[in-house]
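In the current project phase, the collection of sequences with tokenised folds has grown. A representative record is quoted in full directly below:
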Amino acid sequence: MREYLYEQLLQTTGSLSIENVVINFLAACVISILIFVSYRVSHSGAVYSRKFNVSLVMLTLVTTLVMNVIGNNIALSLGMVGALSIVRFRTAIKDPRDTAYIFWAIAVGICCGVSDYLIAGIGTFIIFLFLVFFGVVRDNERIMLVLKIDADRIESIDNDIISFFGGKCSLKVQNVSPRGDAEIIYETSEKVFKARQRVNGMFVAAFSEKDGVKSVSVVRQDEEINQ
């Protein structure tokens, strides 16, 4: 039994011909282009990285190459896993969707490497539609209101801000310096910010004229940039 298992482990079967290898890479190229287009469409904001998008195509082709080399050789596959396990990646992922694209590229490479084009094609079509549709969904951007005021005016300004936004804002930061200056930062949603400005007028103009207010800043906190 041991000898049989040893022979099976070392046996090389399912060697691919040149034609099969070329077809595998052509299929991987075609599907990786769909991945490229999907990533470009769904990442239209500041988080889009052209280099990362190109690397997805390369990842698909590299995975196809690895699968072509491994074939049905169990011993070679185990050795390849051991060799790849020493690689450590330290690239920061800016968008959680990037992880899904990495796994998508690897899965397509595996399917094309074993000549399973049907699964690769159907899976890519479904994932492509899903990511393109949900990729255009954006989180509600947050608005940060930064005011530099006199410390003795904190309570009064706080009441005015709460009244301006109808209570739909929250105090995030309050700093007071020994010189009597204070900085307060409020957060609200972009939807609320625009709606309340239509009712009460421009926020910056309204609060810049108040006593004790030295400066007013409005910062759009986009999640794509903050990742």
Remarks:
- The first strand starts at residue 142 and ends at 150.
- The mean pLDDT is 79.
